Amino acid sequence: MNQKLSDWASIAEIVSSIAIVVTLVLLIAEVRGNTSAVRASTFQSVSDSIADMGDFALDRELVGVFYKGLRTGLDDPLEESQFGLILVSMVRRFENAYYQRDLIEPELWQGIQNSLDRLVSRQGFGIWWNEWRSVFSADFQELVDGLRSDTSLF
User: Fold this and answer.
1) Domains held by the chain: number
2) Is residue 128 domain-resident?
3) What does the chain look like in DSSP terms, one character per residue?
């Protein structure tokens, strides 16, 4: 009888070990699925935030100020303020994306960074950045400065 009890205990131990392994495999699959969902949700949130920047595009005058400011800088104080506020909002959203980049697939972050790169390569951005740089985090300043140093305009 002792032998049968020992056999049953061994079988129970094996079944228990198998159950633990199956549970771990399912848990790993769940975590991976959750990680993918978090990455997708983060990217969607960042994309929506950046897309919302285009709301000013509904105002033809602001669009003109924005593009004129990017090309050459501005002399009119009102236009300079408008341009500055648009860029603060826009660049702050890029900064937010920068801090969430580890939650975004690398190729998707690269697309966002390419958009930022196009923005920072403009002469008017450089003029604005020199004045407003300090309102952004040191890490983000380093990223933007690095992107700007890669362009031939500066």
Assistant:
1) 1
2) yes
3) -HHHHHHHHHHHHHHHHHHHHHHHHHHHHHHHHHHHHHHHHHHHHHHHHHHHGGGGGG-HHHHHHHHHHHHH---SHHHHHHHHHHHHHHHHHHHHHHHTGGGS-HHHHHHHHHHHHHHHTSHHHHHHHHHHGGGS-HHHHHHHHHHHHTSS--
The predicted pLDDT at position 131 comes to: 92
- Residue 62 contacts by C-beta under 8 Å, 6 or more apart in sequence? 56, 82, 86
* Residue 124 C-alpha from the chain's centroid: 24
Say if residues 124 and 73 touch (Cβ distance below 8 Å).
yes
CB 50 within 8 A of CB 97: yes
In terms of residue numbers, what domain contains 107? 46-149
- Residue 3 lies inside a defined structural domain of this protein: no
Question: 26 is written with which tokens?
Answer: 């399912």
pLDDT tens across 88-121, in order?
Answer: 988 988 998 898 888 878 888 898 899 899 999 9
Q: What is the pTM of this model?
A: 0.66
34 assigned to some structural domain: no
CA distance 22 to 128: 57
